[in-house]
Amino acid sequence: MSATINPLANPKAVKKLCELCQKPAKLQCTKCLVTFYCNSDHQQTDWTSIHEKVCPLLVSIHTPAPFSTLQSDRDHHHKETLKKQKHLLEIAHLEAQRWVSKKRFQEVLPAAVQFLRWAMQVYGSCAVELVPAYLLLAQANIGLGSLSQAHEYLSKAEWTVMKTPGCGNTVLHQLHRTLGRLHAATGKYASALTHFANDVYYASEVFGLASTVTSGGYFLMADVFLKQNKPDVAHSLYTEVANSWHAHLCKMTDGISQSGTQPEECFDESQCVEADQMLRCILEFEEQCVKPHPDQSAMLAHSLAMLWLLCNNYTKALEYGKKAEMLIQGLSEQNKLRESIHNLLQHAEKHLE
């Protein structure tokens, strides 16, 4: 799928359009009978990205209302259809986020386009609810190197936010984070840092300064400082990120050691992948430093072990737990961390027996 496709384009006088590129289509999905494609490659891409998850729901949504003279029946059908449309856009949103976290940007596009299309259907063409879809499409295009298309989607997002008085801080933090990514990709590092600083501000207003969500902005700022050859600044930001994640994961795993069961609040697949990538990146940075910090590396390895323990991957939990145990040897002032690592190893080994 081309990254320069405009999903909002809709050529006149053409009834059957490709789901992905909006060109005249001849292939039809034989399951839902309402989705069309210009070629088999687009059909397979859409199926992998999102269509498999929403195919049955599309049939239900496109089923016409039964003939009835009663307004109450027509109102009920409309209400049920709206509920299904909202469910569909939620699925598309989650799938697009999942592909972004895996950095499989080609697969992001069909799900994000579906998300945008149904958000427009439900909320209208100028609603602030469209902004997350624009941002996902922008992230995908940044990942694919289509920066002009990413800029177009971000312009739509900015315009929508500007026209929405009292727009929430969550949307603003997401907008500035994506704008920062675009400026970093184009080498405009000063602008990127400004947007990431705004991202941290708005995220902290919603989630708190020590939140792992807020720390994502610090992580992206650190990457920019590394590109500017400022490793000391990057290290201080990475330390903030590492501390936030370690405290958060310790809090979550405390429940396991006390009750032996998984906490109610845990990670989904996309969150786990994203956290793993971030923590491993910082750990690799620490290991390559001229002046190593074994206590910091041990804490990061322990964080990765806790993350995979929470995701029920006991093999990886054991792998990183043993690494943390090795790194902490010889450090005399880490008794609490040493005890926590020991308990984690016991828990992981028990599940692998």
TrEMBL record:
This protein's record includes keyword Glycoprotein: no
One of the Pfam families matching this protein, by short name: zf-MYND
InterPro entries listed in its UniProt record: TPR-like_helical_dom_sf, Zinc_finger_MYND_domain, Znf_MYND
Domain MYND-type: 18-55
UniProt entry keywords in alphabetical sequence: Metal-binding, Zinc, Zinc-finger
PROSITE patterns registered for this protein in UniProt: ZF_MYND_1, ZF_MYND_2
PANTHER family linked: ZINC FINGER MYND DOMAIN-CONTAINING PROTEIN 12
Protein name: MYND-type domain-containing protein
Organism name: Cirrhinus molitorella (mud carp)
Taxonomic placement: Eukaryota, Metazoa, Chordata, Craniata, Vertebrata
